[in-house]
Design a protein that fits this description.
Layout (H helix, E strand, L loop, with lengths): L9 H9 L10 H13 L10 H7 L36 H4 L2 H8 L4 H14 L14 H7 L16 H9 L12 H4 L11 H11 L9 H4 L2 H12 L9 H12 L5 H15 L1
Helix pairs in contact: 5-12, 6-14, 13-14
Length: 279
Amino acid sequence: MLLKRGDNNEQVKQLQSKLGLEPVGNFGPKTEDAVKSFQVKNGLTPDGIVGEQTWQKIMGQGVLITEPAPVSSTAQPVAIVGGLKLEKLKGHIPDNVISQIPDTAKTFGIDTPLKLAHFLAQCGHESGGFRLTQENLNYSAQGLKNIFPKYFPGNLSESYARNPQKIASKVYGGRMGNDPESTGEGFKFRGRGYIQLTGKDNYTAFGKAINENIVGNPDLVSTKYPLLSAAWFFSKNCLKKCVDDSNATVTSVTKCVNGGTIGLADRLKHFKEYYHLLK
């Protein structure tokens, strides 16, 4: 789930209705201001972007708070590993993410400013600014045809639309170590973590790497290990591509993570930002 300014769809209409706005479907300045106001009142980061937590609270699935959550005035120290200047990332990356970096960097060798900048830039983009820890599969029928045409020929997408469990079971079933669609393993091992670890094979290998039963409790990837799971994948597949700070290298790393170059401009921007801070 990720809704932001410029979006225009049925989910925006639902959002606007809940916020007491006219449900026109276009996420404009008024909707953004209403979201920010709601986030402030409910102790959420007031960024005007509707991620999973904001959506659930607006739609009545979370516990609403009538007063803003108290903000601590005491700055928390940031652990140091390998000389990395992690303190400089404060305000650019959420504190809860920064706190995970020392152990993550040490465990998977993402321990230089160059490597860490590449890693964080990819994680940040893939997770919508470190807000999303699991894959959004709430596609419309047309969305399924556009994104997964191989799996939804003809009118098949209509019977899967807006049903994430069926969609994931169909798209991921019978591959990446998952059993057939009928078993539901495609949904069980859907994308989680900041780089969306996907497939039973990856969950199994990650669990072995950290000596924990991840296959038995796959939600740990999104709740406890969103950064560590991303680091395992990045170290195994993409770390060797982090050779310098050129645009060509960011492009190469992006292709490794994404399979293409979707969002390359944003990844480049954040790589340069993080690398400048960490050097």
